[in-house]
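Folding problem:
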Amino acid sequence: MILRAAADLFAEHGYHNVNTEDIAAAAGIGASALYRHFRNKHELLELALASEFQAVSSALAEAAPRDIDSAIAVLARAFGGRPRMGLLWSRESRHLDDPAKQRIRGPFFEVRGTLEGLIRERTQGGDPELTAMAVIAVLTSPAYHQTTLPPDRMIALLIELSMIAVATPLTGRDGARPQPEPDGVTSSSRPSAIMAAATRLFSVKGYQTVTMQDIGAAVGATSASLYRHFPTKGDLLTAIMTRATEALHVGLADALAGAASPREALRATVTAYVSFATRHRDLLGVLVTELPNIPEPDRRRLRAAQREYVSEWFALQAAARPEQDRAVTRFRVHAALAIVNDAVRTTRLSSHPGVVRNIVDLAVSVLEN
């Protein structure tokens, strides 16, 4: 009961915006009773994550599926009953220390390893690791939206979209590897340099953990000099998010302008998003995880701008597949976005041959097929 309450609150508000008193109240107990079971909030986060992942891993192990179809059916039901898992994994696990991260990754790696092996048997080529990540992204994508379907229908749709990902032909691992990206040149603009350093730190450590002193050290400046450009840390995060959101809308406008049909525009929009994400991984990480930390009223403004961006995906998907109902359209779009977001932020995948094209093809397949 306590772990369930903690998981719900961490997913809804973020780890740093929840205290143990909040968790105790949600569980219907006093704070002193909570401390009889758990030493601190960090332990609650670790055990909440561990219980979620272990439940999924155990369900898969007990079923002992012989093929990818059976495995996905089991996982769709297991993940479907834990709609917060995607948020907890992608946003909150970074707040754990390294030993705790290693402990909770065990069940996740077991699930991914089982999927990879069964996908390899089915496809006899391609990139099984990327495809396995795409399947997990699809199955956890309901964490990122509020669209609802009857449980059985939702599970059936998640199975369908996962199998589409499995069937998508990908460039094999024996192809040419991407060239290493250059380190880049630091901007001569002091505000831009500060924003770039802050973006990296926020993405890796989380906004709440990073101080202005940390950012100043990264750019060789005192924290006092940073305040001449950004009066508060919240203003700095707002500037970063505003610039990123504007870049997404520019990429969308270019994709729409060069397309001759909704289907063509949809693929161009996916391609533009993947291009943005792969060139700005840290910025993508901030976009995906830090909106709850933006001060009001900027949070409402940026949330509205991001919803407007995703709404264009909904409109293109509806025009390309007019026979789909509104809920299915939204599930498909959020599944495609989750594939891109999770694959791009998985560093080890960045060296896979043809990874950018493969991510585009996976996302487009989930939307179109």
In short: The chain has a mean pLDDT of 92. The two ends are 41 Å apart (CA to CA). Residues 134 and 286 are 21 Å apart (CA to CA). The chain is about 70% helix and 0% strand.
